[in-house]
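By convention, each integer encodes one residue's backbone shape. The lines below illustrate.
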Amino acid sequence: MALLEVKNLSVSFPTADGTLHVVRDVSFSVEAGDFFGIVGESGSGKSVLVQAILGLVPGAQLSGQALFNGRDLIGLPAEELRLLRGAKISMIFQDPLSSLHPQYTVGQQLVEAITTHQKVPKSEARARAVAMMGKVGIKDPERRADSFPHQFSGGMRQRIMIAMALLLEPELIIADEPTTALDSTVQAQILDLLAQMQRELNTTVVMISHDLSVVSRVANQMMVLYAGTCMELGAADQVFTEPAHPYTARLLAATPSAHNTEHRLRPIDGSLPSLLAPPHGCAFAPRCELATELCHSTLPALVEHRPARFAACFYPDTALAAPEPVPASTAVRAAGTEPIIAAQGIELSFTSGAWPHKRQVQVLKGVDLELYPGETLGLVGESGCGKSTLVRVIAGLLQPQSGRVLIQGERLGAPNTESWKKARHQVQMVFQDPFGSLNPKRRVGSIIADPFLIHTNVRGEQLKTRVRELMDLVGLNPEHYNRFPSEFSGGQRQRIGIARALALKPQVVLFDEPVSALDVSVQAQILNLISDLQRELGLSYIFISHDLSVVRHISDRVAVMDRGQIIELAGAQELYENPQTDFTKTLLAASARS
């Protein structure tokens, strides 16, 4: 008997506009000891599916069954579900900081997880909590148990969440995007830790991710979801090497690591169908280049087309066309070319802690970096190494304590000086979180218009025309000029940020993790757009990312940072094939593992 068996589960939400059909007739089973992966684009219903099984979606209408050790969890009274959660089934959420209470120490929260389900003395509960913290790799756990969540790094907070999930030795752990936005080294550590805990404690793991490379690293079984429907199901290694469904194949084709750097990424055209009125046929048919009239009119059943391989497709195993080749990079530096940007001897320190324990932490330690016309310079390193701080110094958003930034040979001055204002026309920045960098109360047209209003005399109809031209340039519908940021998808919001950055026709654009939280297909669209704009407009880029396959795909040269210093700099292919420093080798090895 399977540990978890889901039969014909459907989840819908009544709204003022009609019923949202978020999960539709999904069936799968997870055997004890499995590491089961669930993948799909954002909005495909992954998180709603597992949260519905645990009774964490109030107001939802559920049908079907979710049998845990033969006991149906759907419709189980709230008190009985509460006793199961934590003790028998635990969940690790995507953002550990929002899942941990900021006013309680991590030790207190771990102890509470034990005493809620078991009548044991607090001293014994604390001893168990400290022991589990040590087991998940937190150094000096006795002391760190008295620390608060904000005093840990992102990777350490995720380890605490894993410790909390394991404390009562549950039979099943559900991990919802546990490695999103983590460095490759930390990501690899978290994945190794989950796999190790699974082996040592014989725990079954169900992991959700939009990152296919993460799931391929650890899962032995997997399911591909699209628009709330199961598209493909089977052994993970087979699904990744021989995808049966066109949707799975297109997800893999959109992944940078699957491509030669001279090949254009292949995003999936179109978008998810409306969940208010799902298609009568295959949900993926409107976006599938192989779809026929049958696909549009008839819903394909999930059938076993090979031993233990299931696909909801009338034409499984049909090959897709090869990736479209693109021109080789134009960023070959000619002899004697002067850098467009030169950072020289940049040093910067921040004050850490509160009185009387204040101390100076040096973030940048004499950094030298040059960017040449038309090239993309990738910047990689672990979180906290100074990557984002460096590009903010180059953009003039932070002032270094020593050193200087030269833009076309002219020194960048302090804020609001003439050279600083001139730099706004030459250097622009695109931030990691597009929603966080767009004012939610302002319309997109006015957001993109800001650079013109602040730095130029463009007004009236000419202003509207320029803004609409920018929207069209980055692939946005100019008719959506008056919409608010909340009315756009994540990928579209990133396009808005790029349009705003291009308004003043800069020569340099600094990208700080612009695709870290995007689905692979949307990520491919943005990376293709960035490459197209570089060729069309002759732009130069500095591109920060924790995803080394993305950096390799888009970069001409790569700089590796460690503890505030550039420790290695080389051509992208040379650095990836022949790294010189131990740190770079470790970084690349972690990326390959994750």
